[in-house]
Amino acid sequence: MKPPLIIVAGIVGVGVMALANGHYINVPSILSNITAIAQQGNALQGNAQPVAATQAAAQTNPPAPTSTAPSPKVDETALRYFASKGDTKRLEAEIARLKALYPDWTPPEDPLAARPQGDPQLDQMWKLYSEGKLAEVRKAIADRQATQPDWQPPSDLLDRLAVAEAREQLVNASDVKQYDAVIRIGSANASLLTCGDVDVLWRVAEAFARTKREDRARDAYLYILRNCAKPEERVATIQKALPLLSRQNLDQLLATEQKTADGKGEFAAIRGDIARQSLANADTDPKLVIADADLAAVQALANDGGLASDDLLLGWYYVRRDNPQSAESWFRKARQKENSAKASQGLALALINQSRPAEAEDILYQWRDADDDVRKVYLAAVANLLAITPPPPLAAPVLQRMVQEVYAAKDAGSAQQLGWYADALNQPQTAAQWFKLALDWKPDDEPSAYGLALTRWKIGDKAGVREIQAQWAGRSERIPTVGERSIQTTVVGRGRSGPRQRAPAAQTDDQTDAGAGKVRRSAGRARQQSSGCSSSVDPVTLSPEAALSRGWCLMQANRPVEAAAAFDVALHGRGKTHADAAYGQSLAYLAAGLPDMAAVSAAKAPMDADRSIEIRTALLESQAANAFDQGRYVETIMALDERSHIAPERTGLMVLRGYAYLKLRRFDDAEQIFRAAAGTGSHDALKGLNDVKMARELKG
Predict the structure, then answer these.
(1) Is the separation of the CB atoms in 528 and 548 below 8 Å?
(2) Residue 23: beta bridge partners?
(3) Cα separation of 209 and 225, whole Å?
(4) 221 touches 245 (CB < 8 A)
(5) Residue 7 has what DSSP assignment?
(6) Other CB atoms closer than 10 Å to residue 463's CB: what's the count?
(7) What pLDDT, in 10s, does the model give residues 113-162?
(8) What is the C-alpha separation between 670 and 696, in angstroms, rounded?
(9) Of all helices (H) and strands (E), which one includes residue 237?
(10) Where are the stretches annotated Disordered (predicted)?
(11) How many domains does the chain have?
(12) Which CATH number belongs to the domain containing residue 448 in this structure?
């Protein structure tokens, strides 16, 4: 039995086949992997065997005695041509190739010293070959054979031409991502798979990885690291494997690390890249567990290296793991180093996740058009900002730019939130327009349909309400109920609650006492007599009826916060108990200065007309006062206008309206209101007239 031979493209090898840069290359070991894959795909029916099998065969059957056959003639044409052109790289590769083919051959000390008589046409073919003009070489051969039928090109040229054409095909297949073709061509051309052309080995390894044969890819990379000696190629091999191999397989590659002259590991410079890749993988898979060492390595790189990309990696890592505080810290560091769209996008996400959408909107506005992902995050910041309850005061330029961006993007979610925001400011007509736009952009958006029905009901458009109810019949439980409740507010539609923060008051005594006085009088009329609420009792231990009685008692004692808790227990009752509890809790929250929560309570049960008007009037008064306190004078006037439709305007509210006009520099309107109020003997109205006079003088 003879040792197996590998015959590819005219090259014969037994065991160790090639020599490049002074190092023997074990080609069959890598070929065994490639051939096995090719055989699985019926693409190659070769007889390449692993080195282990070759060695075993050699041990079982010792080689026959050497013969005294004459040494074969070595074609040194290419060698001498490359030497004549000073092409050192190709000269060395040719020497390595000839040594692999003819082990007993000794390269000439001076390839130019004994140069045989030249063949100009053949020299031109070699020149074309060296320039990579393979098709022109083929044409030159065909042309010469047409004129000289007996002439045969050197087998060396044909072999090299075939290998170069195969390499070109492999590279082209790799470039267009035809990875199966890469493997097939590589398995059929063993002479390509040497350290003399490590780029081909890299491409074959990548092809294995891209076709989900990672173990084969690992073996290809290991072949390079175990057989190729150039330091830059070894480092590049690890770098190319980074995005393609799992950490377990990468560790096997790193185990081949060699020491440099200064005693450091040759892969030390890229271990940071490996840690970075771990975090990048974690970005796409939130469940992926990252080694503490990798996390610490990237943190050290971010702190010491100064690259914003490292801070971004850490920021996205923490965002994906619901740690917005840490994410914010790293994104801010990234923005300090380089204020980019991605850094701002990440920071905005971290802020949104911490319920700080106003900061997110402000940070991301300048980058809103960077790409679609950034725009989506910006619109999310807008929607979250508008969804805050109570609605935050927004500067006119900020609100205007948000409106413009929502309209330009046709974003239904943000349009819906603009609807609720306008409704919270008692602008039902504007709110209805936004809800209608949201429905136009997203016809199946039930919350927007509900908001549109609600605002149409508020402005008295009963036909419009019926139209929405007909369209959503059977698709929504709450839209058919619009109009059945006595009070509908922004908070009802949103399902949110929370106290509105009041700014320092700038109002008359009449205004200050109006809301609380109204609530106390109402409580006096509606409360049920009770005694014994001076002691502390947990209302949860009471029955709904007893809790209701205690709530009225606490209201009489001017303890509205405790009363609200008692009424909350009473809401578990039925019928009249439930309705009275909702009414009482509304009054309690109004007395406590929490109008938004009062609105929520008012919607928990139907109320009769008197109660409905009473609560609605108090809510609008509170809305007007809050708007004035926060410098939103147009909204103050709008709230007072809406209130005037359901109840006469008292003197204190007239004074408030006059000062709103004055702040808006509508002097004529302010003077008219103050004169009307002054006719009742109001000292505050007289003071307002004087303030108008002084403001006009300052203007002049």
Answers:
(1) yes
(2) 20
(3) 17
(4) yes
(5) E
(6) 8
(7) 645 556 888 888 888 887 778 888 888 888 888 888 888 888 878 888 88
(8) 11
(9) helix 231-241
(10) 53-73, 479-540
(11) 4
(12) 1.25.40.10
Q: Which amino acid is at 513?
A: D
What is the rounded distance in angstroms from the CA atom of residue 431 to the CA atom of residue 417? 9
Percent of the chain residues past pLDDT 90, beyond the cut: 30
Say yes or no: 570 and 622 in one domain: yes
- Same-domain status, 520 and 623: yes
DSSP one-letter code for 479: G
Residues 244-294 pLDDT 10s: 998 889 989 999 999 888 888 888 878 888 888 888 888 888 788 888 888
> Max CA-CA distance within the chain?
137
Question: Is residue 8 helix, strand or coil?
Answer: strand
342 falls within a domain: no
Contact 346, 316 (CB under 8 A): yes
CA dist 77 and 127 (Å) reads 12
Question: How far, in Å, are 385, 389, 429, 681 from residue 455 at the CA level?
Answer: 21, 18, 7, 39
Q: Quick check: pTM over 0.70?
A: no
Peptide bond into 390 cis (omega under 30): yes
Structural domain including 658 reads 648-700
d(CA 154, CA 437): 79
Torsion, CA 217, CA 220, CA 224, CA 226, rounded to 10: 110
Q: What is the DSSP letter of 265?
A: B
Could you tell me whether strands 18-20 and 23-25 are parallel, antiparallel, or unpaired per DSSP bridges?
antiparallel
Give the C-alpha separation, 183 to 43, whole Å: 9
- The Cα–Cα gap between 158 and 160 comes to 5
DSSP state of 259: B
What are the residue ranges in the chain where pLDDT is below 50?
1-68, 114, 485-531
Query: Do residue 594 and residue 668 come from a single domain?
Result: no
Q: For the beta carbon of residue 61, count every other beta carbon within 10 angstroms.
A: 11
* Cβ atoms 67, 51 nearer than 8 A: no
pLDDT digits (tens, 9 = 90+) for 516-539: 333 333 333 333 333 457 777 788
232 contacts: CB under 8 Å, gap ≥ 6: none
| Neighbouring residues of 143: CB distance < 8 A, sequence distance ≥ 6 | none
Considering the domain architecture, whether residues 522 and 437 belong to the same structural domain is answered as no
Residue 390 lies in a domain: no
Instruction: Quickly list H helices, 107-229.
Output: 120-130, 134-147, 155-175, 179-188, 198-210, 214-227
Q: Which residue type occupies 291?
A: A
